[in-house]
Design a protein that fits this description.
With 167 residues, the chain is an all-alpha fold. It has six helices and two strands, in the order H-H-E-E-H-H-H-H. It has helices at residues 3-10, 14-23, 42-55, 60-68, 73-110, 131-139, and strands at residues 30-31, 37-38.
């Protein structure tokens, strides 16, 4: 199938397919005498893998590394490790969003009846977090996924950018 057919089949633009090919993520099986790319049916599966990996939060560089390695226990370990880090990052972001939600709900409640005597918005203390909110924010500390990576000089695990610090 030509690139346009592959694009229709997968829902990915032709420019993205060309980019994947340039990065080594996808390979045309051949070219026609006119220079058109010709892909086999396995290309649909490869593009599907790339798209699924992207939705799981893997970068193209991570996907590229996975594709270039041979299948085996080491590759499976790397995939599990990458997914564990993505999961830890997702959990951290969910905790941040829940904290934000709590803060917004508390702010909405405090501001329901207006703030007589406050003056201009931003000039008064009604926008500052309460003691309870400050404790809640401090309790939502980021933690790494528990991997066995060696900490770097900044306290992170050194392989995913997490910093094991409070946000």
């Amino acid at each position: 199938m030509r690139i346009a057919e592959l694009a229709r089949e997968t829902g990915v633009s032709t420019s993205a397919l060309r980019y994947y090919e340039a990065r080594g993520l996808l390979r045309a099986d051949a070219r026609t005498p006119a220079g058109y790319r010709v892909y086999g049916c396995q290309a649909v599966g490869r593009v599907g893998f790339i798209q699924r990996a992207k939705t799981l939060g893997l970068s193209l560089a991570e996907i590229e590394a996975l594709i270039r390695e041979r299948s085996g226990p080491a590759e499976e370990l790397r995939i599990r490790h990458a997914i564990a880090h993505k999961l830890a990052d997702t959990e951290r972001r969910l905790a941040q969003l829940e904290t934000l939600r709590s803060e917004l709900l508390a702010m909405q409640e405090r501001l329901k009846g207006g703030n007589p005597g406050c003056g201009r918005v931003g000039d008064c203390e009604c926008w500052l977090p309460t003691d309870k909110e400050a404790r809640l924010m401090a309790a939502n500390a980021c933690s790494c996924c528990g991997c066995t990576c060696q900490p770097d000089e900044c306290g992170g695990c050194g392989c995913c950018g997490c910093d094991n610090s409070r946000d």
